[in-house]
Amino acid sequence: MKQKIILWLTGYDWTEFSIAYYMQKTQNYEFYAIIDVQNNPKEFFENQTLVSFKKIWFYHDYVNALTIKKTELINSFQKKYNIPAMDIAKNDRIFMKKYNVFHEFSNEEITEIVANECQLFENVLDEVNPDFFLSLETAFRPHHFFYLLCKTKNIKILMLNSANWGDYCYISKDYHKLENFKEKFIQTNTEKTSFVEQQKRVLEMKLSNKTKTFFKNQQKSSNSKFSAAFYYLFKSDNKTQKTHYTHYGRTKFKVLFNEILINFKRKNRKKFIDENLSYKIPNNQNLIFFALQQEPERSLLISAPDYIDQVENVNFIAKSIPKNYHLVVKEHPTQGPPTRDWRKKSDYQKMMNNPNVTIIHPSVPADKIIEKSKLVISISGTLALETAFYGIPSITFADNDYPLIPSISKLSSKDELSELIRFSLENIKNNPDDVKKYFDILERNSFIFNLYEFQLAYFKQLYFDANLFDVKISEKNLEKFLLDQKDVLLNLTNEFNKKISET
Question: What CA–CA distances, in Å, run from 250 to 88, 113, 254, 474?
Answer without folding.
Answer: 24, 18, 6, 25
